[in-house]
Amino acid sequence: MHQDIDEVLVSEAQIEAICLKLGKQLSEDYKDKNPLFIGLLNGCVPFMSALIKRVEIPIEIQFMAVSSYHGGIESSGDVKIKYDLERSVMNRDCVIVEDIVDTGATVKTITSLLLHRGARSVKVVTLLDKPSGRKVELIPDYIGITIPKRFVVGFGLDYNEFYRNLPYVGVLKPSVYIK
């Protein structure tokens, strides 16, 4: 897998530092609030796992399987919920945990849905923010690092479901996905 990476964009050490910083900020902002962290599967798993180890307050976690890529390298814009929450968000402070915010369509759709379901508040924490890819108006509340408009994989991000297990975020060589 490593040979398919053009360059490492965010190293393991950088990811660890980001999780520590975000974990401290979330702990401070949500003390005494009993937040519900909602991970968007599958990409959130490594980031959410690393992040919640750094959150020093009681939290609950839930997951949703949501997709807008459907196997390609660009978002289709068609957001599909494949697996929904098992708990109510009524009067809860929710934190959406996302590996990357690119077009913003998925996060905006889920934020609207949670608010419609009665969430008290909905904030977004993302490891990676790619504002140059944005197609909707959205700024994540907690950003690990802003990256340029490049196709990245690793640490949860995939190409055709592969590369999620890389311990860093790297730029995938175009020769892998351009045939």
From TrEMBL:
InterPro entries to which the protein is assigned, alphabetical: HGPRT, Hxn_phspho_trans, PRTase-like, PRTase_dom
Occurrences of domain Phosphoribosyltransferase (ranges): 14-159
UniProt GO molecular function: guanine phosphoribosyltransferase activity; hypoxanthine phosphoribosyltransferase activity; magnesium ion binding; nucleotide binding
Compartments (UniProt record): Cytoplasm
Main location: cytoplasm
Cofactor: Mg(2+)
Keywords of this entry: Cytoplasm, Glycosyltransferase, Magnesium, Metal-binding, Nucleotide-binding, Purine salvage, Transferase
GO biological process assignments: GMP salvage; guanine salvage; hypoxanthine metabolic process; IMP salvage; purine ribonucleoside salvage
Keyword Magnesium tagged: yes
Reactions the enzyme catalyzes: IMP + diphosphate = hypoxanthine + 5-phospho-alpha-D-ribose 1-diphosphate; GMP + diphosphate = guanine + 5-phospho-alpha-D-ribose 1-diphosphate
EC id: 2.4.2.8
Enzyme kind, highest EC tier: transferase
Any one GO CC term of the record: cytosol
Stored Pfam families: Pribosyltran
Pathway(s) served: Purine metabolism; IMP biosynthesis via salvage pathway; IMP from hypoxanthine: step 1/1; Purine metabolism; GMP biosynthesis via salvage pathway; GMP from guanine: step 1/1
Similarity annotation: Belongs to the purine/pyrimidine phosphoribosyltransferase family.
Descriptive protein name: Hypoxanthine phosphoribosyltransferase
Native organism: Acholeplasma oculi
Lineage: Bacteria, Bacillati, Mycoplasmatota, Mollicutes, Acholeplasmatales
